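Entry for zinc ion complex. Fields follow.
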Amino acid sequence: MHLHWSEERGQNAILFTTDEKRSDLVGEAYCLKVTPERVEICANAPSGHFYGVQTFLQLLPPEIYSSTTVDHVLWQVPCLEIFDAPKYGWRSFMLDSGRQFQSVDFIKRYLDLLAMLKLNVFHWHLTEGQGWRVQINRYPGLTQIGSRVAQGEEQQGYYSCEDIREIVAYAAERFIAVVPEIDVPGHCEAALIAYPELSCFAQPPESVMGFSPNLICAGKEENYQFLQQVLDEICALFPGDYVHLGGDEAPKDNWDKCPACQKKIKEEGLKDSNGLQRYFAKRLADYLRRKGKKAIFWEDVVLQDGEPLPDNVVVFWWNSRAHGDLAYRNALRRGHSVICGTNAYCYLNYPVAPWSQYDRSRTFDLKTTYEKNPSDLSDPDRLVLGMACCLWTDWHVRMHMIDQRVFPRIYSLADQMWRRGARRPFDVFYEILKSTYPRLKILGVDYGPAMAEEVPPGYQWE
Ligand SMILES: [Zn+2]
């Protein structure tokens, strides 16, 4: 329906309209028109209106983001007319709540910031060697024991079913889908400490920051039942279309020695332990397919050739530092959808200057991510769902340190996820970015330096 407004109606107002005749106004697309008489945001889906509002807020003075009443501000915006639509349908931010635990309020604050940046997926890394953070009623030990295996500050805690439902609803109000990640068969020492019988040799492993060969045993049939029961509860908590099942960094030393794993390899006619991981991934993906869901895996599952994976598998291309675009090409060749979030330069935990275990080779600044990011594809394949960025919390990145990593570099990534057309010169982009700093200040975002040469001597990353 197109709304026609008489002179007296719709004056001095913000109008939300639809225009179904406009074929370009699909999904998240919107038109924003500001005239001396009115503001009109036209879209054919609620998310389009929402993004129109985000842009309108950006046109207003920074004080619009204040949480308290502000006097003496001229609430003025320029007259303009724009059409805007995203480059990618998938625009995600991943937070590692496994190694470090963040409060529900912290997560909600980040959902607000993601919405402002027009990101629409919150990829929530909920399980790690250092903590299992999601309540599973059938297996209470996962949180009672598994959320307390690391002893550092902000390393204990978990999200109750009620917390999860609150966060999922809060995200949905901002047109953000929450994608849970249950990382298996590696990175799950916390689960194995709670239930040692899940491991190959029924021994509780040590909780590690990185990764270890202590995997969930893929030979024991009862472990598939355990995982299916976990997924039943995860799917009930998270109504979206996707579940991330990890699959990264799983050294096969134990599987190679485990009688149950070796028996499974023989029975199923698999080549070796790498084949066993593909079998394991396939079974879980098939289970999700029966629930009408898609399974996301880190790229590790397509680095080698082998048994084909089901077509509901989506590949997360991450390790460009080690493998270039091998996973990206392999995934496309096998017909899988791809999410592009390479560790060069979408991993925002890599600081701008060296810190803790991050030496200079594991740093990057705004200019690098803007100009050299492999995930920023000028001509993406039709199977590319979109782009991602990640904030891992290894080496004890606590809540108060996260803003400094994420901001302002996430603007470059959000720009690459949303903006179509040719890239602007970096200096132009940087000037626009700096003009947003007053907004970040009002929002209470403790943003860090953007450029390596701007990091003051002795700058505190923590
Ligand atoms: Zn085993």
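NOTE: The pocket of zinc ion is lined by residues 200, 217, 219, 255, 258, 260-261 (CB under 6 Å).
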